[in-house]
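Hi R.,

As promised on Friday, here is the backbone we talked about, encoded as structure tokens. Could you run it through your design pipeline when you get a chance and send me back a sequence?
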């Protein structure tokens, strides 16, 4: 009899847990959508967390269980969408193309995405750069993951002979990400002009960096081996 009761309790507990998780996910989606709509309509500075909670249909205390600050809410709104852009771009990557073509394909997806809501994008990038320590850790993990995937492209290019075998692929990924981010900031600030004014600037910067990788240069200097 005891065994039978335990057996019944397990699926009931699992069902209750599943229901709580679904409710939690539904609230998260409502909060994310409410924040996105208000940030877009009123602007980041003019939107309050109380307004977001009211539109999402949750208590203010519940809202802070998902994001402690308005800045974290902004990260909550756009981080998932940025990740989706990244996945789509890597999925459609021209695998047989040269590294420069691959990089421009990847970065184009982000510029296209940010161009749809430039004001929100400017706030998002600005807040990401100056977030408090806790959310910065989450943001840093996203950046590191992206830089790591760029580094993997460098490894593949190295195997194709597009880069010197001695290229520090981890630092290469960091450098490529930095060039993208710097160009993005300049473009969002208006320093590069409208439209696709980012493209020739980023392409030149990437091409110069790839020359530093020793791409296609059999005589590129090698690190000295210790005897």
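Update: got your reply. Pasting your designed sequence below so it's all in one thread:
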């Amino acid at each position: 009899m005891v065994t039978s009761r335990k057996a019944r309790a397990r699926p009931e507990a699992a069902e209750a847990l599943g229901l709580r998780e679904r409710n939690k996910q539904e609230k998260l989606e409502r909060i994310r959508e409410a924040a996105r709509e208000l940030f877009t309509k009123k602007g980041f500075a003019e939107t309050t967390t109380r307004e977001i909670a009211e539109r999402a249909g949750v208590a203010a205390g519940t809202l802070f269980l998902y994001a402690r600050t308005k800045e974290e809410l902004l990260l909550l709104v756009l981080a998932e969408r940025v990740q989706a852009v990244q996945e789509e771009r890597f999925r459609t990557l021209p695998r047989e193309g040269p590294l420069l073509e691959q990089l421009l394909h990847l970065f184009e997806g982000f510029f296209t995405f940010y161009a749809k809501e430039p004001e929100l994008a400017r706030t998002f990038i600005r807040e990401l750069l100056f977030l408090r320590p806790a959310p910065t850790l989450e943001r840093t993990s996203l950046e590191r993951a992206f830089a790591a995937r760029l580094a993997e492209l460098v490894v593949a290019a190295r195997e194709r002979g597009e880069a010197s075998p001695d290229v520090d692929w981890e630092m290469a990924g960091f450098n490529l990400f930095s060039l993208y981010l710097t160009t993005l900031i300049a473009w969002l600030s208006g320093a590069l002009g409208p439209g696709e004014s980012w493209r020739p600037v980023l392409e030149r910067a990437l091409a110069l960096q790839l020359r530093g990788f020793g791409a296609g240069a059999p005589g590129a200097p090698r690190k000295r081996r210790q005897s």
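One thing I noticed while checking it: The chain has two domains: 8-66, 69-216.

Thanks again,
M.
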